[in-house]
Amino acid sequence: MSAQRIISNRTSQQSTSNADYTWEYEYYEIGPVSFEGLKAHKYSIVIGFWVGLVVFVIFMFFVLTLLTKTGAPHQDNAESSEKRFCMNSFVSDFGRPLEPDKVFSRQGNEESRSLFHCYINEVDQLDKAKACLQTTALDSDVQLQEAIRRSGQPEEELNRLMKFDIPNFVNTDQNSSFGEDDLLISEPPTVLENKPVAQTPHKDLD
Amino acid sequence: KHLIDLYESVNGTMSNNSDCPPVVLPEEVFFTISVIGVLENLIVLLAVIKNKNLQSPMYFFICSLAISDMLGSLYKILENILIIFRNMGYLEPRGSFESTADDVVDSLFILSLLGSICSLSAIAADRYITIFHALQYQRLVTPRRAAVVLMIIWACCTGSGITIVTFSHHVPAVIAFTALFPLMLVFILCLYGHMFLLARSHARRVSTLPRANMKGAITLTVLLGVFIFCWAPFVLHILLMTFCPADPYCACYLALFQVNAVLIMCNAVIDPFIYAFRSPELRDAFKKMIFCNRYP
């Protein structure tokens, strides 16, 4: 607060001497700083601050890399049965292109979407993950319905959409936040985890 | 307090003490970095505005970050212009126009800082919702809602900026301003950390290469590291300037003001590379813009 009083004194003094070019000293006229009797090095705050910052960032990086290497293996066992079931049901339903009536109805979308989510959460093999990627486009019912409305041939649109046409926010978001390559081999599982199935990993994470 | 005064007074008072001389960077460095920052963020804005497929909430938040970075660089350019005019004698030292110009320019700076911090938090929150509420994302985060949220954020930042500049010599304003930085840092750390944990648990189940996880760790460290390295020195500067300007240790830190300021400018230059240009769609839109301009 004394600094404030000093400032107000200075401003009142300066207002009477307009000819003096003193406005740049308005804040710092507390007096010259004396450098005698310093116990530590004069740049100690600077050095300490920057060293602390670098150590913090490096520590954060090591924590992240350690997290990538280690982890509890028991999480995998809990969902293996769920995995098998979902995979079987998904494979049986998506072995062929979707039928038009299923595609048109919202119900068909929801069902296919839930199966799809169930599936992609349990993917643990690379080739199945690739199939999962190709059918990712089906997740966005908005896109699907738009495509269907645009042309009268839903199956053709579906085949077009199946060609790795991931919705904007999924694809680019993953790319922008986690690098150009997939953070995971299959991108969608990270992004498209819905609530009911997500509770399992959430539970594991907590 | 006027930030231009701050800038000049470091040179003025510190010349009394030869023990901790102020580090003076040439004006050209500031000017170059500011111009590069303005151009880069302008490119990002143009790429998003010109492409219909880039007009989604995620890109709105990236645009908001680009706007705040651009404002920060513009502040530096305006400040340089004002200083050049003052050195040439066109401006009076204590004129009312100069005080108003100082206030406006300072508000611009604080607005850009607050906007930057809020945009980074909004981007992190948007990514978090994308990952953990993926099914509801398109219902929750519509472009209209994103625009409304951004308008609210910018209105609050403008109001806070004007308030902080008006009451800048009061300690509570300074504390409120400097407390924003650690709060936002903790918020962003929590969001990204949770996302990273989820990605890690998925990656293990999919038996992917450890290289992908390492890339995620590196990207996350870069995002957070750039934020910390560019902002923390300046925030500490504000704190020390308010609480211990007469202390010799603090004074030696305050002498590095220009280095801290240039770090904020560098943040405006680096941000497009780690946020906007990481998206392949935006890169494609950018290339299309450049090549269409060359071959119309």
UniProtKB/TrEMBL annotation, chain A:
<dbReference type="GO" id="GO:0106072">
    <property type="term" value="P:negative regulation of adenylate cyclase-activating G protein-coupled receptor signaling pathway"/>
</dbReference>
<dbReference type="GO" id="GO:0070996">
    <property type="term" value="F:type 1 melanocortin receptor binding"/>
</dbReference>
<protein>
    <submittedName>
        <fullName>Melanocortin 2 receptor accessory protein 2</fullName>
    </submittedName>
</protein>
<dbReference type="GO" id="GO:0005886">
    <property type="term" value="C:plasma membrane"/>
</dbReference>
<dbReference type="GO" id="GO:0030545">
    <property type="term" value="F:signaling receptor regulator activity"/>
</dbReference>
<dbReference type="GO" id="GO:0031781">
    <property type="term" value="F:type 3 melanocortin receptor binding"/>
</dbReference>
<keyword id="KW-0256">Endoplasmic reticulum</keyword>
<dbReference type="GO" id="GO:0106071">
    <property type="term" value="P:positive regulation of adenylate cyclase-activating G protein-coupled receptor signaling pathway"/>
</dbReference>
<dbReference type="GO" id="GO:0005789">
    <property type="term" value="C:endoplasmic reticulum membrane"/>
</dbReference>
<dbReference type="GO" id="GO:0042802">
    <property type="term" value="F:identical protein binding"/>
</dbReference>
<dbReference type="GO" id="GO:0031780">
    <property type="term" value="F:corticotropin hormone receptor binding"/>
</dbReference>
<dbReference type="GO" id="GO:0072659">
    <property type="term" value="P:protein localization to plasma membrane"/>
</dbReference>
<keyword id="KW-0472">Membrane</keyword>
<dbReference type="GO" id="GO:0031782">
    <property type="term" value="F:type 4 melanocortin receptor binding"/>
</dbReference>
<dbReference type="GO" id="GO:1903077">
    <property type="term" value="P:negative regulation of protein localization to plasma membrane"/>
</dbReference>
<keyword id="KW-1003">Cell membrane</keyword>
<keyword id="KW-1133">Transmembrane helix</keyword>
<dbReference type="InterPro" id="IPR028111">
    <property type="entry name" value="MRAP"/>
</dbReference>
<dbReference type="Pfam" id="PF15183">
    <property type="entry name" value="MRAP"/>
</dbReference>
<dbReference type="GO" id="GO:0031783">
    <property type="term" value="F:type 5 melanocortin receptor binding"/>
</dbReference>
<keyword id="KW-0812">Transmembrane</keyword>
<comment type="similarity">
    <text>Belongs to the MRAP family.</text>
</comment>
Automatic annotation (TrEMBL), chain B:
<feature type="domain" description="G-protein coupled receptors family 1 profile">
    <location>
        <begin position="40"/>
        <end position="275"/>
    </location>
</feature>
<dbReference type="InterPro" id="IPR001671">
    <property type="entry name" value="Melcrt_ACTH_rcpt"/>
</dbReference>
<dbReference type="InterPro" id="IPR017452">
    <property type="entry name" value="GPCR_Rhodpsn_7TM"/>
</dbReference>
<keyword id="KW-0812">Transmembrane</keyword>
<keyword id="KW-0675">Receptor</keyword>
<feature type="transmembrane region" description="Helical">
    <location>
        <begin position="29"/>
        <end position="48"/>
    </location>
</feature>
<dbReference type="GO" id="GO:0007189">
    <property type="term" value="P:adenylate cyclase-activating G protein-coupled receptor signaling pathway"/>
</dbReference>
<keyword id="KW-0832">Ubl conjugation</keyword>
<dbReference type="InterPro" id="IPR000276">
    <property type="entry name" value="GPCR_Rhodpsn"/>
</dbReference>
<dbReference type="InterPro" id="IPR001168">
    <property type="entry name" value="ACTH_rcpt"/>
</dbReference>
<keyword id="KW-1003">Cell membrane</keyword>
<feature type="transmembrane region" description="Helical">
    <location>
        <begin position="173"/>
        <end position="199"/>
    </location>
</feature>
<protein>
    <recommendedName>
        <fullName>Adrenocorticotropic hormone receptor</fullName>
    </recommendedName>
</protein>
<dbReference type="Pfam" id="PF00001">
    <property type="entry name" value="7tm_1"/>
</dbReference>
<keyword id="KW-1015">Disulfide bond</keyword>
<keyword id="KW-0325">Glycoprotein</keyword>
<comment type="similarity">
    <text>Belongs to the G-protein coupled receptor 1 family.</text>
</comment>
<feature type="transmembrane region" description="Helical">
    <location>
        <begin position="255"/>
        <end position="277"/>
    </location>
</feature>
<keyword id="KW-0564">Palmitate</keyword>
<comment type="function">
    <text>Hormone receptor primarily expressed in adrenal cortex that plays a key role in regulating adrenocortical function. Upon corticotropin (ACTH) binding, facilitates the release of adrenal glucocorticoids, including cortisol and corticosterone. In addition, MC2R is required for fetal and neonatal adrenal gland development. Mechanistically, activates adenylate cyclase (cAMP), the MAPK cascade as well as the cAMP-dependent protein kinase A pathway leading to steroidogenic factor 1/NR5A1-mediated transcriptional activation.</text>
</comment>
<dbReference type="GO" id="GO:0005886">
    <property type="term" value="C:plasma membrane"/>
</dbReference>
<dbReference type="GO" id="GO:0004978">
    <property type="term" value="F:corticotropin receptor activity"/>
</dbReference>
